[in-house]
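Hi support team,

I've been running sequence recovery on a batch of backbones for a student project. Most finish fine, but this one hangs at about 90% for roughly twenty minutes before it completes. I'm not sure whether the input is malformed or the queue is just slow. I've pasted the structure tokens below so you can try to reproduce it. Let me know if you need the job ID as well.

Thanks,
M.K.
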């Protein structure tokens, strides 16, 4: 279905309709429908929406639709907490604006500032960036603030938790006058409400929760565990669940390093995402995930900020987070744009209070499950062996002679015993399991490529 047939409920410019059609966006998502009227009317807004719900398009469409390509300089500024998220938002807005000739500059630290300044001088209609680098640019070139009319704080709760409040205040002071303020946040802790009272004027509230769209695609589950056997219990869960791709969260960097090492020793395709990695090393890890060579990423909340993995099926809270807001942020990495996902928490006695507040504040009641038994694991191992046999032999032609021999063996009183002995002698279990895992990795790589080609709305 062409984009116009789905987006005709929104009064968009022909250029935006054409861009949506180019991107294959068939129809607006709930947050996009709800956010467009107040934002297009110029109202301030507080949007409660996690990554993966279409939030970038939700604020991008009305901003770009109202944009006047004047020579005054950038008209809108989007602040993001991390380089990775800034790059994602920049890419999305650039693709949306390309048909209308909109140019968006990307500003972030860790690289030379000069090429970024040059791009702005060449003419930019909007800016996406991290607070520190944006402030540096504005200090060097105050003229770039002259035309600013819209301020977006993307993942506002994360911006605050990472200590950017002073930078935000300094940036707001550089706006030339009244601006339209838009806060986008997965959660609404008191700090966000306090900040919105300071920087927003009578904001419209757009909440997925109020639309009945708190990620229903996410299945929340929990296992009560003995903290002394946490690693053993995680391994049992992984062997029983067999996630295609997962983020496994730890609360400290040291615990993440230890866990990644233990899982590698047990044969899991795992890598560590650490705040100590260089940007090149982070890019390498993410490339391995996208290509399906790594199924599990072990990380802390800090190290994983701003990263978005397409086709992620599971989030696993190896250690339960300290706050319900962290749980929501972690879990929001799955259940993207209609895709199913599962959030699994390992809950110890010390986590009961946070679990209570998760239910009280967000209405989330993870389904309690029992740890897999030895019999459960054995059934899964047998199923994996069957998958290995099918992956290796199902496509091979069988001769009529061998099929006849098989039928005779099956009808013999000792037939099953003979077939089992043949399997044991000629086919090693380890080889079959490897065959099954390689087939699964190939399927995962293809799924990742399909997801990447599908460019989901922000």
């Amino acid at each position: 279905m062409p984009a116009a047939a789905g987006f005709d409920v929104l009064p968009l410019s022909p250029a935006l309709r054409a861009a949506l059609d180019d991107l294959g966006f068939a129809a607006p998502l709930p947050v996009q429908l709800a956010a467009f009227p107040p934002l297009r009317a110029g109202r301030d807004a507080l949007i409660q929406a996690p990554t993966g719900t279409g939030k970038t398009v939700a604020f991008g469409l009305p901003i770009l639709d109202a944009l006047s390509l004047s020579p005054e300089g950038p008209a809108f500024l989007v602040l993001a907490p991390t380089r990775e998220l800034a790059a994602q938002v920049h890419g999305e807005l650039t693709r949306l604006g390309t048909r209308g000739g909109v140019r968006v500059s990307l500003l972030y630290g860790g690289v030379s500032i000069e090429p970024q300044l040059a791009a702005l001088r060449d003419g930019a209609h909007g800016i996406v960036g991290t607070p520190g680098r944006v402030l540096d640019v504005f200090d060097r070139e105050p003229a770039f603030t002259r035309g600013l009319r819209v301020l977006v704080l993307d993942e506002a709760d994360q911006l605050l938790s990472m200590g950017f409040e002073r930078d935000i205040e300094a940036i707001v002071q550089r706006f030339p006058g009244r601006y339209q303020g838009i806060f986008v946040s997965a959660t609404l802790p008191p700090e966000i409400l306090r900040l919105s009272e300071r920087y927003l004027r009578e904001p419209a509230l757009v909440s997925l929760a109020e639309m009945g769209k708190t990620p229903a695609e996410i299945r929340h589950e929990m296992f009560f565990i003995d903290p002394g056997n946490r690693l053993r219990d995680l391994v049992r869960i992984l062997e029983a669940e067999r996630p295609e791709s997962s983020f496994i969260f730890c609360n400290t960097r040291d615990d993440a390093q230890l866990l990644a090492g233990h899982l590698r020793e047990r044969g899991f395709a795992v890598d560590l995402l650490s705040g100590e990695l260089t940007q090149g090393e982070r890019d390498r890890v993410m490339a391995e995930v996208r290509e399906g060579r790594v199924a599990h990423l072990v990380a802390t909340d800090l190290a994983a900020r701003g990263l978005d993995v397409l086709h992620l099926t599971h989030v696993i809270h190896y250690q339960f987070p300290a706050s319900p807001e962290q749980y929501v942020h972690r879990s929001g990495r799955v259940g993207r744009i209609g895709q199913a996902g599962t959030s699994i928490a390992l809950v110890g006695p010390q986590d009961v209070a946070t679990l209570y507040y998760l239910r009280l504040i967000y209405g989330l009641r993870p389904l309690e499950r029992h740890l897999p038994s030895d019999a459960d694991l054995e059934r899964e191992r047998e199923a994996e062996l069957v998958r290995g046999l099918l992956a290796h032999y199902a496509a091979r032609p069988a001769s009529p002679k061998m099929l006849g021999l098989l039928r005779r063996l099956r009808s013999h009183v000792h037939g099953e015993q003979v077939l089992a002995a043949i399997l044991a002698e000629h086919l090693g279990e380890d080889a079959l399991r490897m065959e099954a895992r390689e087939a699964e990795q190939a399927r995962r790589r293809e799924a990742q490529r399909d997801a990447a080609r599908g460019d989901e709305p922000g």
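--
Follow-up from support: It reproduced on our side and the slowdown came from queue contention, not your input. The radius of gyration is 26 Å. No action needed from you.
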